[in-house]
Specification:
Shape: globular
Pfam families: MFS_1
CATH topology: Growth Hormone, Chain: A
Structural class: mainly alpha
Radius of gyration: 21 Å
Helix content: over 70%
Organism: Sinorhizobium psoraleae
Protein name: MFS transporter
Keywords: Cell membrane, Membrane, Transmembrane, Transmembrane helix, Transport
Distance between the termini: 40 Å
Membrane topology: Multi-pass membrane protein
Number of strands: 0
Oligomer: single chain
Largest sheet: none
Number of domains: 1
Length: about 425
């Protein structure tokens, strides 16, 4: 009698596990992957447009840098508040339905933002924008990690980060084409949000179901599983949110025109987009932890160079590389998430990533805006440098602990 006949329930479990995990080991399902990436990329276009657009408008109105930073923090606050609800919402509504609903609600929120251009009115509306945007990122990244074969995880997650970053770059770039006044720039974002929902509706039959195997884990429970991983996400989030919302203030203090600052933001995100595939390949070769440490140190170098090269032609290559390595911290975090977790823990991990990403934006932008108000415009690179130093120190300490544990195991053997 065969083992499957002796233990029929075990055979069923093995077949289900095989069907769940085989996409991670076999060929890449390019159709589903293209739908996932296209969905979040179009969403990123709208997100990348709103940060500099709203900062430009507030800057023209004479709003204080700290208040501009506080306004920008409302979107990540929406990320934070929505994150704990996402696993339950996915189980009830399904990933596809929830993504389509969030796209429509985000478009309606941007219509409301365009209708009333006043900083205090924008506070709750920007919160809602983050609340509706967050589930889409959690759903898409969970889908993508689930279907990605383990040996190609680095390059696939790098490809994902690159294409999504390209969407963010198109957002600020579109401001150079349609301007920052009136309805035209807002219409770009509104159409992008609606297009996102249409793409999901088109490709949802090819998309996998959300993984349900394993023990249910809350967002809070995931913090105990991977604290350093979540701090890396916090650093990447704060870095990006600070640059997108306050580089306009920094550049204005140095006499740069709005068009040049918008182009620098685009260059920053373009470096992010171009370099993620390369960083993913590096992670496959040398390990994601070592690559993350290299990204943190390179980001620190960019912070130190910014004041001296801002008005020189060297600012363009510096900002390009800076964008790539700073967001590379998040790409390495996604790779490690896929390496270490599966099933419901993976969903909780992605939701925890979104939660911490929101915290990074909430803390980073207002704190840096206040630092700039108290110490001058150089508070921007100083705040970013501090973040990179802390992450680098934690990563070095973790590597030493890992080497010590490995040495102890070898000694015992």
């Amino acid at each position: 009698m065969t083992r499957d006949r002796q233990f029929p329930r075990a055979a069923v479990v093995r077949r289900r596990l095989h069907s769940t995990t085989s996409p991670r080991q076999g060929r890449i399902p390019w159709g589903a992957m293209a739908g996932i990436i296209a969905t979040v990329t179009v969403f990123a276009v709208a997100q990348g447009l709103t940060y500099p657009l709203l900062s430009f408008i507030l800057e023209r109105q004479g709003t204080a840098p700290s208040l501009i930073g506080l306004s920008a923090a409302m979107t990540p606050l929406g990320f934070v508040v929505s994150a704990p609800f996402i696993p339950a919402l996915v189980r009830r509504a399904g990933g596809g339905r929830l993504a389509i609903l969030c796209s429509i609600l985000a478009a309606l929120t941007l219509v409301a933002i365009a209708s009333r251009q006043e900083v205090w009115t924008w506070m709750p509306l920007r919160f809602l924008l983050g609340f509706f945007a967050n589930p889409l990122y959690v759903i898409s990244e969970t889908w993508l990690i689930t279907i990605t074969p383990a040996p190609r995880r680095g390059r696939i997650m790098g490809l994902y980060s690159s294409i999504v970053s390209g969407g963010f770059a198109i957002g600020p770039l579109s401001l150079g084409l349609v301007g920052t006044q009136g309805w035209p720039p807002f219409m770009v974002g509104i159409v992008a949000f609606l297009l996102c929902g249409l793409i999901v509706l088109t490709v949802v039959p090819r998309l996998p179901k959300m993984p349900h195997e394993g023990e249910a884990t809350s967002v809070g429970g995931f913090f105990a599983l991977a604290p350093l991983l979540l701090f890396a996400v916090f650093t990447a989030a704060a870095f990006e949110q600070i640059l997108l919302s306050l580089l306009t203030v920094y550049g204005a203090a140095l006499g740069s025109a709005e068009e040049r600052i918008a182009s620098l933001i685009t260059c920053f995100i373009a470096g992010n987009a171009v370099l993620q595939i390369l960083l993913g390949r590096v992670a496959e070769r040398f390990g994601s932890t070592r690559t993350m440490l290299s990204c943190a140190l390179a980001s620190l170098a960019g912070c130190l160079l910014l004041p001296s090269v801002f008005n020189l032609w060297l600012i363009w290559p510096v900002v390009f590389v800076w964008g790539g390595v700073s967001f590379g911290i998040y790409t390495m975090s996604l790779i490690q998430l896929g390496e270490r977790f599966t099933g419901q823990v993976l969903i909780a991990g992605n939701a925890a990533f979104a939660f911490v990403w929101g915290i990074g934006g909430i803390v980073g932008s207002p704190a840096t805006g206040l630092a700039m108000q108290l110490t001058g415009h150089q508070g921007l690179p100083s705040s970013l440098a501090l973040l990179c130093c802390v992450l680098g120190a934690f990563l070095v300490a973790e590597r030493r602990r890992s080497h010590q544990r490995a040495s102890c195991c070898i000694t015992k053997l």
